[in-house]
Structure formats: C-alpha cells, structure tokens
Amino acid sequence: MMSLLFRPDLDAGEVFVNFNQNTTSLAVATKSGYSLYSLGSVDSTLDKIYTCPTEEIFLIERLFESSLVAIVSQRSPRKLKVCHFKKQSEICNYSYSNSILAVKLNRERLIVCLEESLYIHNIQDMKVVHTIRDTPSNSAGLCALSSSSEHCYLAYPGSVTSGEVQIFDAINLHAKTMIPAHDSPLAAIAFSPSGTELATASERGTVIRVFSSLDGTKLFELRRGLKRCVSIASLSFSTCAEYLVSSSNTETVHVFRLERSSSENSEPKQSSDDWMGFLSKTVSSYLPSQVTDVFSQGRAFASVTLAEPGVRRICTITKIQKQLRLLIASQDGYLYVYSVPSMEGADCQLIKKHDLRLDDCYAMDVRVNPAPSLGVATGVTTATNIIAANTTDNNTKHNETKASPSSNSYATALKGDASSNVASIGGS
C-alpha cells in the first residue's frame, strides 16, 4: 500500500516501485511497461507473475493477491484504468479534470487523489460514492488508505503550513478526527495493518510519531536523527505491526520497534540501569519541554546503510517463510532483502540484491487487450459526469451516477484467492 509519489525519470533508467497492501507482491514500472513479482521466495529468487509491454506507467497498484491492477500512464495522467491482468482485459476507466497523483486500494474502496480533491470509489462496482473537495493543495499526492476493511480510514494533509492530518471514514463517508501531528507540513503518512494506528513524519524529518486513528492519541514518538533535517520518502508498518521502518533521501534506512507492553500506560518500574528514564524524570521540571521530549523519544532498533544517498526508496518489513525480512525497493531499480535482528543494536544482514531492470518488457509477447468497459453500467465515466452528478455539500459531494457490478465474477476476483483469480472479469 506504498508508493514513491513522484514522477520517475524514466529516461534516466529509473523505475516506479510499489508493494501491494500485504507485501506479497511488488509492482515495477519502467519506460517499457510494467511487471508484477511474487515475494514468496525473495530470499533466493524474484518470481515474475506478469509482464506487460505498454505505454509508460506513472502509477500502478495491485489489489492484494487478486488479478486487479489500477494503472495511470505518463501519456494520460488524468485517466485511471482498472485491468484484469490475467485475462489481459480492461475492466473500466475513469477520467478526471486534473492529473492523478496517487491511487490507493483495499477490498472496499479505491481512492483517487488529485491536487485539491479526493474521489472515493466503491470497489465492488467502481461507482464514485463520495468526493472530498477543496482539500489543501497536495501537489505530492500524499494520502494513505488503511488496508483493513473493518477500519477503512483515509488520511490526507489538512494544511499546507502545518502537519495537520485529516482522517476520514471511507465506509460511512464522514470525517472522523483531525490530528495536529507536527508543526511543519507533512512528508509521509502510513496506516498500520489494522488501520487503528497512523504513523506520520514532517518535512523536517527528525521525529516520527504514531497516533491512534480512532481518537488521535499519541502512542509513540521516535527520533530518526538530531544532526540534520531530511526528506522522508517512505513510512511503513511491518505486517505484524511490531516494527516501523522509514527511508529518506539519505543513505540510511531506520527500523523502529514498537513496544506495546500491557503496562504501557502505567507508571514504569525504576531499575538500576534505567538511568535515562531516571534522568528524564529528574530534569523534566527544570528543562524546557523541547529538551525533555528528546529524552522520551524512542531510538532506532536497527538500521541499514546503503551505498548511494539521494536515491528515493520504499521499505517494508514482512514475514517470508516465517522469517522477518526488511525489503527495500529503490527507484534506481534494485530490491534489497535484509534480515531483521532479534536484538537491538545488531546489524541487518543483506541476504539478496535483485536487479529489477534485467528483464526487458518488450521481450514478452503479452499485452493488455482492452475489452468493453465493465464495473460501470454505461461504460466509461468521466470527471465531467462525476462533477455534474454531485450535490452541493460544502465540504464533500455525493456521486449519483448509476453503477452496478457487471458480474458475480468481478466481486469474486476481489477476494484474491487462487481459484477466483482465473475467473473472467473482462469481456462481454
């Protein structure tokens, strides 16, 4: 459920990389097209699921393990296409008034982020059920959608001058809470797998905070560094929600461990070697709050130092064959696989480095063949139709365009199981 949220310089050989919602596959888009890889045996091999030589891809999102992918091309940045890659068919496409900056998926909703608005689609029939308009200017397309269907929340910046986060209930279609996360504007946001926690980082990049998405309570404050401000490129919870990993424009990737003991909210016992805790309490009444905050901030559990600074990377931690793995995908075309140490301060060991640019997409004779549009009863829906059908609520507008599932196989494929993935969605 992560993306680099920038236009890759494809002429320089860079790629767009993106993990799916539960980190079981990796999407890679180059100037030649896009490929999907399975991560089940990434310690040794990177198994290719599908390759499509097509126009240059700007964004690509796969829905869990299903055959559904949402893509936006460099040639048509205002058009979203939803395709069934196994059937090599286009299900539907939507056009918008401005360029699409981000696309997010879960099993209930599809979110399209424009610079000053957000469209919420019902993924079962692709109908636009809600539009959030007049959002603060969001040229980076910064937004996050929980992968959970139970806590299906959408987060996006609430200000261009401060780090305010707006959390929206994408199922019940109403604002849930606002979190004043940082003093500086936001640079990265990410939900935990359950959707109940939200990690944030500002443009300064020195402090990462974790909040409850239910009520906005601050749960963790993590210190990335003191020496310099950086640009955070990626925040991601591990699939077990015990770790949080961040990458930036520096050469270092930080791994934080989120300690959730039962006594978290009670007064901690003072041990003889807990001198930092003792010092924090002792000086808290004498020093400014900015200083005492530094004592209470968690430090990185582990880190990885890569060779090249200035390369944007996305990272995640997942279990692969029952072992925790740190995966780092970079825009220069590499996927790094690291072990995660069991003890704080130990090094993450490099297990494998995959070159994502070795395969030429044009060598494959596999192409997406557009089929009659499905998922929308009358075919393709454009932004003009959407705007005309909306009501005039001050903050958000409901879409009244009629839409219905094209077939039972569409809903079945959304489940992502192996048997349903071969069901036909495209075609008449």
UniProtKB/TrEMBL annotation:
It is found in: Endomembrane system. One of its GO terms (biological process) is response to stress. Keywords: Autophagy, Lipid-binding, Membrane, Repeat, WD repeat. GO terms for cellular component: endomembrane system; phagophore assembly site. Residues 402-411, 418-428 have a biased composition (Polar residues). SUPFAM superfamilies: WD40 repeat-like. It holds the Pfam family PROPPIN. It is a peripheral membrane protein. InterPro entries: PROPPIN, WD40/YVTN_repeat-like_dom_sf, WD40_repeat_dom_sf, WD40_rpt. Residues 392-428 are annotated as: Disordered. One of its GO terms (molecular function) is phosphatidylinositol-3-phosphate binding. Belongs to the WD repeat PROPPIN family. This is Uncharacterized protein. It comes from Glossina palpalis gambiensis.
